Amino acid sequence: MPDKILIVTDDAGESFETLYAQHRFREAGYTPEIAATVKKRLNGVIHDFYPGWNTYIEKPGYLIESDLAFEDVNVDDYEAILLIGGRAPEFLRHNKTLIEIVQAFHEKGKWILSICHGIQILLAAGLGEGLHLTCYENVRFEMESCGGTWINEECVRDGKIITGQTWGSHADFYREVFKHLPQKA
Q1: How far apart are CA 114 and CA 177, in angstroms?
Q2: Catalytic: 117?
């Protein structure tokens, strides 16, 4: 089995979700590679929840280097793909090359992981219909409109797709991920 995990994000991707994934996969013996529209230094964001606000707030986050552009991805090189949240999925879901990558992971029976707003990419790839999924609660409408059933749990697995609600779901999300992906370290 490949030892690499493809992490998908871009400018306005959630910093904590991205960095936590990099470190967690490295700890488990995998080589995480960040793919974006182009290979460059990405401007991450931090989404946080403040008392009295009806939704999250956004602040500038860490600068994170991408390893490769979508056009350079070879799906066969990876064990799984992880779709990071933040605002990046708003525009990434319109990237034809990325959508074809996600569909290829699905067609090859590989693991697809999604957290928070990453579900927008999964749905744009046509993979929500008939599935039990979770995501950030305010993206629920999109998921249900695409035929998915929203489950109000931190983490949900349906076949080879594992979804998490927010970065606050990391413990449950990665516990489920590593029930299915063998630790290499």
Answers
A1: 11
A2: yes
